[in-house]
């Protein structure tokens, strides 16, 4: 466990629910999580009705509007994944990736350094190039993303300053991306709301938030770890965004088909939101 992880667990001790979440994540296994969710069948991108193509399409179509652009972007709770930034990297010059767990930050570093044992995201990169239709090769896409990621930082979304004081990330940032983070690390709906409030402080007025998350999920597996999730519905996500000072620009939902319900979680569906922070 890194010193940052120990500090975060100590700070969580004042809240038993958060303490339990932090403790459970110390058993998180990045490669198991990746196999469960980004290998077959969920990672079979040839199934165009699958969850992978749906998420990539939501992101690509939103960035293609040309409205979500700027200098800096922060990915909140990146986990061990990079797919969520494959479209974003064409529209921002400075990308910060973040995660609570050192093992996930290490996993991201392995991919960025192109280590031989890095998880292979090439099928995702190829699919993004296909749906974007710019004639770009997947190798060019991955080179571009690697060149735009400037730092990987610890984060705790349950702290009022999620990146800590004096963060090297450019603040306030022009955009936030977050996939399967807030609901997965919040013991209840109030914690989800506070976490959303906290990350919103990192975003400039009129900045954009792209949020992907699980609908009506209560647990998921990552190796020996069985992690609790706060079950949320579309109405609750919309209400939380309104309370945090956002206008929803687009809200899409996906129902998980039976063939993708593989026993690694109890997720019922996925949501994608494009929201814009109010100016005042």
Summed up, what is this model?
InterPro entries: NNMT/PNMT/TEMT_CS (IPR025820), NNMT_TEMT_trans (IPR000940), SAM-dep_methyltransferase (IPR053384), SAM-dependent_MTases_sf (IPR029063). The chain has 280 residues and is α/β, with parallel strands linked by helices. It contains nine helices and nine strands.
Describe the structure.
The chain has 280 residues and is an alpha/beta fold. The strands form 2 sheets. Strands 3-2-1-4-5-9-8 form a 7-stranded mixed beta sheet, with helices on both faces. The protein has a two-stranded antiparallel sheet with strand order 6-7. Strand 4 (173-179), helix 8 and strand 5 (203-215) form a beta-alpha-beta unit. The protein has a single domain, classed as Rossmann fold (3-Layer(aba) Sandwich). The chain has 9 helices and 9 strands. The chain has helices spanning 3-12, 16-24, 30-38, 51-64, 102-112, 122-132, 138-148, 189-200, 234-243; strands at 72-76, 94-99, 149-154, 173-179, 203-215, 219-222, 225-228, 246-255, 269-277. 35% of the residues lie in helices and 23% in strands.
Q: Which strands sit side by side, in order, in the main sheet?
A: 3-2-1-4-5-9-8
The number of distinct β-strands equals 9
**How confident is the prediction overall: mean pLDDT?**
94
Tell me about the largest β-sheet.
7 strands, mixed
Query: Approximately what portion of the residues adopt beta-strand conformation?
Result: 15-25%
Which series of helices and strands comes N to C?
HHHHEEHHHEEHEEEHEE
At CATH level 3, the topology is Rossmann fold
What class do helices, strands and sheet pairing give?
A: alpha/beta
Q: Which percent range fits the helix content?
A: 25-40%
* Count of distinct structural domains: 1
Family: Belongs to the class I-like SAM-binding methyltransferase superfamily. NNMT/PNMT/TEMT family.
GO biological process, one term: methylation
Pfam family, one: NNMT_PNMT_TEMT
Organism: Sarcophilus harrisii (Tasmanian devil)
């Amino acid at each position: 466990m890194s010193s940052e992880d120990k500090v975060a667990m100590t700070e969580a001790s004042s809240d038993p629910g958060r303490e339990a979440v932090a403790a459970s994540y110390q058993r998180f296994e990045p490669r198991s999580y990746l196999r469960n969710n980004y290998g077959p069948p969920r990672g079979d991108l040839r199934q165009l009705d699958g969850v992978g193509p749906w998420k990539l399409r939501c992101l690509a179509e939103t960035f293609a509007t040309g409205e979500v652009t700027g200098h800096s972007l922060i990915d909140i709770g990146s986990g061990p994944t990079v797919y969520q930034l494959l479209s974003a990297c064409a529209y921002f010059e400075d990308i910060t990736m973040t995660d609570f767990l050192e093992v996930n930050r290490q996993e991201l570093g392995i991919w960025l350094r192109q280590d031989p044992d890095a998880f292979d995201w090439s099928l995702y990169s190829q699919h993004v190039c296909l749906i974007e239709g710019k004639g770009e090769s997947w190798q060019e896409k991955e080179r571009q993303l690697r060149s735009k990621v400037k730092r990987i930082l610890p984060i705790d979304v349950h702290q009022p300053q999620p990146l800590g004081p004096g963060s090297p990330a450019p603040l306030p940032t022009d955009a936030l991306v977050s996939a399967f983070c807030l609901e997965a690390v919040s013991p209840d709906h109030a914690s989800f709301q506070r976490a959303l409030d906290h990350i919103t402080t990192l975003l400039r007025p009129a900045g954009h938030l792209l949020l992907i998350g699980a609908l009506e999920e209560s647990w998921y597996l990552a190796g020996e770890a069985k992690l609790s999730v706060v079950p949320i519905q579309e109405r609750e996500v919309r209400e939380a965004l309104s309370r945090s000072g956002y206008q929803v620009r687009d809200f899409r939902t996906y129902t998980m088909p039976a063939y993708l319900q593989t026993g690694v979680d109890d997720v019922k569906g996925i949501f994608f939101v494009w929201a814009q922070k109010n100016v005042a």
